[in-house]
Amino acid sequence: MERTREYEELFRSEAREYLSQLNTLVLRIEKNPKDRDAINEAFRAFHTIKGMAASLGYTTIVEISHELEDELDAVRQGKKKVTEELIEKLFSGIDKLEGLIEKKEERKIRIYLSKDTPLPAARAVVILNIIKSKGELLGTDPPEEEIVKGNFQNSFVVHFRGAGIAEEIASMEDVEGVEEVLEEKEEVEEEKEETYIKKAKDVRVPIERLDRLQNLVGELVIGKEQILRMVSRYNLPDLAELMGGFSRIIQELQDEVMKIRMVPLSMVFSRFPRYVRDLSKKLGKEVDFIMRGTEIELDRSLLDALSDPLIHLLRNAVDHGIEPPEERIKKGKPRKGRIELNAVRMKDSIMIEVSDDGKGIDVDKVLERAKKMGLVEEEAELTEGEILKFLFTP
Question: Which active-site residues does the annotation give?
Answer without folding.
Answer: 47, 69, 316
